[in-house]
Amino acid sequence: FTKFIHNKDFGPSLDEDQYGYDLAVFLALTQHVQYAKTEGLAFISNYQGSTELLTEIQILTHREGSDLFGDGNIESMVDDFEKKHVCNYYCKWPGFGL
């Protein structure tokens, strides 16, 4: 079991030398893509499990009805995404246009 990204963090929960760090960096990109594609409405966090199977992910949103996604939905995370997300090398790839 590995916690790749906590639902209260904007980046990997692992250090660069830990197993699964590269996957955590890629998952941070998926958060950026989700945030952009939903026009700032939502993204997935709380990535955990193994490198083959993720479990108990959490959808984060700040819109009315956000309690639909459970107690782990931290609205301020969505509000703060643009200020606190640090783009990694995947995010900066020109093909993504982020």
Detailed description of the structure:
This protein is of the alpha+beta class and 98 residues long. Helices cover 27% and strands 17% of the residues. The longest helix has 17 residues, at 21-37.
Explain the layout of strands and helices.
Layout: E1 2-5, H1 21-37, E2 42-45, E3 47-49, E4 54-55, E5 58-61, H2 75-79, H3 81-84
Antiparallel strand pairs: 1-3, 2-5, 3-4
Q: Bin the helical content.
A: 25-40%
* Largest sheet report: 3 strands, antiparallel
SS summary, helix count: 3
Number of strands: 5
The H/E string reads EHEEEEHH
> How many whole angstroms does the radius of gyration measure?
13 Å
State the end-to-end CA separation. 31 Å
Low-pLDDT residue intervals, each spanning 5 or more residues: none
Helix vs. strand class: alpha+beta
Instruction: Determine the mean pLDDT.
Output: 87
**What is the beta-strand fraction?**
15-25%
Global morphology = globular
Order of strands in the sheet with the most strands?
1-3-4
Short recap of the structure:
The chain is α+β, with helices and mostly antiparallel strands.
Name the features.
98 residues, alpha+beta, two-stranded antiparallel sheet, globular
